[in-house]
Design goal:
438 residues, alpha/beta, three-stranded antiparallel β-sheet, 16 strands
């Protein structure tokens, strides 16, 4: 949009005509009017103090929940103080993606360390420098799978609906057919997957844990996908890898995911971080860039941009991906978080998420009308039935400072519990559910 505003009126009109639009406002018609900023409507001549007070009054209208029991793709985790202390330093905070790469040794090293940690976390051979968010990473993985004779991509219906929607957008532009494989009892229907897999299928995307929080039979799914000659993409919650098998151990060719749980706050939805890793065989298909380690002319440790497709810059219509940047600051944040936590710390966080979710599931499902919808194993999220209207119940919880579960189809609620939820908070939630569902 910055480039758009810097051109002349005639050039703007020509650009709009090229994409079939008559005004800039038409670019944003998909955004509901209720959430579009229509202007701050500041009075003329306000002083700095008066303007600041006005902005504060607006900010005070935001609801900040004392207790959060919702995930659905963005998770409330504790962020050690050292993470913000380091990443807010001026030399890090202002650093962006390195265009004159080799003179940006500090940024390159931070990217290299991020890639190393993502590889260790996922068990994969190589990682890129990051992409915009988890949904973008999943969509970019589709392009990594597609080949001339394999132009159909399968995706589990149990994946996050927003991830599926992003994949559909990408596939619509590339001409790739995206086929959704149905579920059975909340997890992927293996018979349906076998039936859909043939020699035209490029790959299959599975989310683990899935959107309903359930653990899929990822290893068996990998065997089915590979038997059809297709590539296996796993989208993972990085915190869950503190206790679950890695994508590599379950046969994945590509591992992607949302890096927000690794030290990034909820922050009203962003900025977040997409990570991508793969086997060595697919290294040259990874979008974006890869930073590598070498030595300089004097034998000292140095960092370089090892791999980046030049088509992403100069022949964009020929490129398999148009991502030519990376989330440098968010990636550094994840790196500092992982370094601060270490393997044992991440395992403790994952274990606490697991134990608190199972404690809460047992307590909630014991209430009349709140039974678990699915019988499978889960990590830190699960779906329950709701004996009353979900919007009414969630409004009642909101009045008590609680953000309740995410409403899903057929009057269900998707609950999430992390290390941030104390037993006292969970018990208070149970009491409120009991009082508001009679």
């Amino acid at each position: 949009m910055g480039n758009y505003l810097s051109v002349s009126r005639s050039e703007r009109d020509e650009m709009l005509q090229t994409v079939g639009l008559s005004s800039v406002d038409e670019l944003f018609t998909r955004i509901p009017d209720a959430i579009r900023l229509q202007g701050l409507r500041l009075d003329d001549g306000l002083s700095e103090l008066e303007s600041a007070r006005y902005m504060q009054r607006l900010a005070d209208k935001n609801i900040r929940f004392a207790s959060i029991f919702r995930g659905a793709g963005a998770y409330n985790h504790y962020i050690p103080a050292i993470v913000k202390s380091i990443t807010s330093k001026e030399e890090f905070l202002t650093a962006y993606t390195p265009y004159q790469a080799e003179i940006s040794q500090g940024v390159l090293q931070s990217i290299f360390e991020f890639q190393t940690m993502i590889c260790r976390l996922t068990g994969m051979d190589v990682s890129n420098a990051s992409v915009y968010d988890g949904a973008s990473a999943a969509a970019e993985a589709v392009a990594m799978c597609v080949e001339r004779k394999r132009t159909r991509m399968l995706v589990a219906a149990s994946a996050n609906p927003m991830t599926i929607a992003t994949m559909q957008t990408y596939c619509n532009g590339s001409g790739t057919e995206l086929i959704i494989v149905p579920t059975n009892n909340g997890i992927t229907d293996l018979d349906a997957l076998r039936a859909a897999s043939d020699d035209t299928v490029a790959g299959f995307y599975l989310q683990q844990p899935n959107f309903c929080g359930l653990l899929e039979d990822a290893a068996e799914i990998g065997r089915i996908v590979h038997a059809a000659g297709a590539r296996y993409v796993m989208g993972v919650n990085p915190v869950s890898l503190g206790v679950l098998k890695t994508p590599s151990e379950q046969g994945a060719d590509i591992a992607v995911g949302e890096g927000q749980p690794l030290g990034l706050p909820l922050a009203f939805g962003g900025p977040y971080l997409g990570f991508m890793a793969s086997t060595t065989a697919l290294m040259r298909r990874l979008p974006g860039r890869i930073a590598g380690e070498t030595v300089d002319i004097e034998g000292r440790r140095a960092f370089v941009l090892t791999l980046q497709a030049r088509e992403q810059h100069i022949r964009r219509e020929k490129a398999s991906s148009n991502i030519c940047s990376n989330q440098a600051l968010c990636a550094m944040t994840a790196t500092v978080y992982l370094a601060a936590m270490g393997p044992d710390g991440l395992r403790q966080v994952a274990t606490r998420c697991l134990s608190k979710a199972h404690y809460a599931a047992a307590a909630i499902s014991s209430l009349k009308g709140f039974g678990l919808r699915y019988s499978g194993e889960f990590f830190n999220e699960f779906v329950t039935e709701c004996p009353t209207d979900t919007s009414t119940l969630l409004a009642a919880l909101e009045s008590k400072g609680m953000l309740g579960g995410y409403p899903v189809e057929n009057n269900g609620l998707l609950w999430c519990f992390t290390e941030m939820n104390s037993r006292a908070e969970i018990d208070d939630l149970i009491s409120e559910l009991k009082n508001n569902s009679i």
